[in-house]
Each structure stands twice: as structure tokens, then as C-alpha cells.
């Protein structure tokens, strides 16, 4: 019983790894901003996989005591190993799910770390049982290697310091790029659909209408902001003038406005029926999406998202007579 307790005490780093995995996954799940999710994401993705890989590979060797120099070198080795393992795990997620999802990668990495820590714990236990009778004989040989071990692990060399600083900068930069959405990255999906044979599809939009004719387009919104968001959708019918790349709205009519709230991963859809009240070749159905309340005069410049469908409107025969 005492040997098991001693082994668990010696492997407290692996027990800490298991706790860090649980804390990291929970923090990533409940974090509402990139700043909150960044530290646990960096730890889980770019440190722990390499650490358990290295400890498993060297589980049957005698471990050096924890010093500042060994902590730095083990951290550098952990990051390097993680950068080697992470792409392989990403490929597994992509092949299994057909797409590289963030939570698929987080789940696989967490499982890899936990299984790796458990396997390392087993190898360490076997090593302890196999070498307990030889420790006294190994004491003399270890004394002869103390000086070299001290040179390798007891002092922080300039090369190790430069490596550690470079790794920290690289991981911080990569972590920010992965965890914090860049400006313009689509975090909320705004889309327009039409109904074809009882199914909603993202094609077959009306391209030609007659003045006074009705048409229907379904507006859809999906929240991927990792937090609950209050949205407002404003739909308009616009007649525009196109001059090169410049588009000027010459006339517009408000169709409808909707306010709703969506949690992470939730979607909202509404079938919008409208009449073609403008005539001309440059008429469009426009949808503006706002987070919160819209201004009195919604435009594409002020909207969070804007999408539209172009069509021509021919004058009615009654109007031409």
C-alpha cells in the first residue's frame, strides 16, 4: 500500500495534468470572451499533449528533480511535442467528422491527454516495481553522472532561455489567432433561403417579377458568438442605381422588423412575403442584421451583417395601357 501511495505522490504531475484538463475544458465551455478562453485553450492544445507524450516516452527513466531550468526545458519540450501532435489529432477529427470543428478538436485532445497520462502512470508503476531491487546498486553510477546532470538540468543556458522565450511568443501568437475571432470573421450567419418542393434551399431566388406580384424569401440567422445575443432583423425593398462599383439607394421601403434573442448554436427563421412595388432592373430584397437595436435609418454601413437578392421588376400590363 505504501509503494502505491509513494508512486501516486511521485506522479502528482500526472494527477495535476488530469485536473488541468478538466478545468481547461470547463473554462473553454463557459468562457464568454476570447480573453477568458485563451489561457485554458493554449494550455490544453499547446502544452499538455506534448507533456504527456514526452513523459510517456521517458516513463522508464529516472526523473530529474524539478528546478527552474528543468521546468523551462520541459515546458519547451511540451510545446514542441504539442505542435507535432496537434496537426495529427486535427486530421483525425477531420476524417472522422468530415469537418474540423473546434469542440471536436478540444474533445479529442482532452481524451489524448487523459489516456496518455494514465498510460504513463502505468509505465512508471512498472518501472518502480522493476528497479526497486537495483536502486542501491545504481546509487554509485548515478553519483558519477551527477555533475553532467547538473550541467544539463541545474543551470539555465542562454540557448535554453532563447528557446523558451521564442516558444512562449510563438504559442501566444498562435493562441490569439486560434481563439480570438479576427475582425470580419463570421461569428453570426445571416442567410436567405427559398422553399423548393417543401425544402428550404439557398438557391432558386426570384430573378424577375411583375409590378405588384408577391414573392417570399426566408430569412435565417444562426448564432455562433459563444454567448447569448439579442438581434434585430430589418428587411427592405430597395431600388438602386449602379455606377461601376458604386451602388446608390434611390428609393426604399421598409418591409418588416424582428427582434429576438438566440443562445449559442441556436437559429431563427422567418418567411418574409413582400410585393414588388418598385420597377426597374436594379431592385433588391435587403436584410440588415443588428446586435441590439437598429438606427432609425438602417444601412449596410451600420449593420452587423447585410445580405440581399437582386431581381428585375417589369411594369404590370395594366400600368402600361
Automatic annotation (TrEMBL):
Xref: Pfam families: DUF1616
Domain DUF1616 as annotated: residue spans: 20-311
Cross-referenced InterPro entries: DUF1616 (IPR011674)
Signal peptide: none
Domain of life where this protein originates: Archaea
Keywords: Membrane, Transmembrane, Transmembrane helix
Membrane-spanning ranges: 14-35, 41-59, 71-96, 102-122, 160-180
Name of the protein: DUF1616 domain-containing protein
Lineage: Archaea, Methanobacteriati, Methanobacteriota, Stenosarchaea group, Halobacteria
Amino acid at each position: 500500500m505504501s509503494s502505491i501511495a509513494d508512486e501516486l505522490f511521485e506522479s502528482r504531475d500526472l494527477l495535476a495534468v488530469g485536473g488541468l484538463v478538466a478545468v481547461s475544458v470547463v473554462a473553454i465551455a463557459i468562457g464568454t470572451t476570447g480573453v477568458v478562453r485563451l489561457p485554458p485553450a493554449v494550455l490544453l492544445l499547446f502544452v499538455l499533449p506534448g507533456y504527456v507524450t514526452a513523459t510517456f516516452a521517458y516513463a522508464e527513466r529516472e526523473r530529474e528533480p524539478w528546478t527552474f531550468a528543468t521546468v523551462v526545458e520541459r515546458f519547451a519540450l511540451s510545446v514542441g511535442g504539442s505542435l507535432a501532435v496537434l496537426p495529427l489529432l486535427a486530421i483525425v477529427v477531420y476524417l472522422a467528422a468530415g469537418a474540423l470543428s473546434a469542440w471536436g478538436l478540444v474533445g479529442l485532445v482532452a481524451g489524448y491527454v487523459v489516456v496518455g497520462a494514465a498510460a504513463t502512470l502505468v509505465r512508471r508503476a512498472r518501472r518502480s516495481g522493476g528497479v526497486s531491487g537495483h536502486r542501491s546498486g545504481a546509487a554509485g553510477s548515478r553519483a558519477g553522472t551527477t555533475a553532467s546532470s547538473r550541467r544539463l538540468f541545474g543551470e539555465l543556458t542562454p540557448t535554453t532561455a532563447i528557446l523558451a522565450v521564442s516558444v512562449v511568443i510563438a504559442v501566444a501568437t498562435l493562441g490569439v489567432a486560434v481563439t480570438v475571432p479576427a475582425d470580419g470573421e463570421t461569428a453570426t450567419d445571416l442567410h436567405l433561403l427559398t422553399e423548393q418542393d417543401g425544402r428550404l434551399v439557398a438557391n432558386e431566388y426570384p430573378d424577375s417579377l411583375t409590378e405588384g406580384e408577391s414573392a417570399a424569401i426566408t430569412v435565417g440567422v444562426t448564432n455562433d458568438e459563444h454567448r447569448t445575443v439579442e438581434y434585430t432583423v430589418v428587411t427592405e425593398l430597395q431600388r438602386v442605381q449602379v455606377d461601376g462599383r458604386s451602388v446608390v439607394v434611390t428609393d426604399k421601403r421598409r418591409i418588416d422588423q424582428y427582434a429576438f434573442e438566440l443562445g449559442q448554436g441556436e437559429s431563427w427563421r422567418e418567411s418574409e412575403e413582400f410585393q414588388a412595388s418598385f420597377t426597374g432592373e436594379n431592385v433588391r430584397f435587403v436584410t440588415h442584421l443588428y446586435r441590439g437595436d437598429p438606427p432609425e435609418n438602417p444601412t449596410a454601413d451600420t449593420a452587423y451583417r447585410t445580405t440581399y437578392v437582386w431581381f428585375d421588376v417589369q411594369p404590370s400590363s395594366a400600368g402600361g395601357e
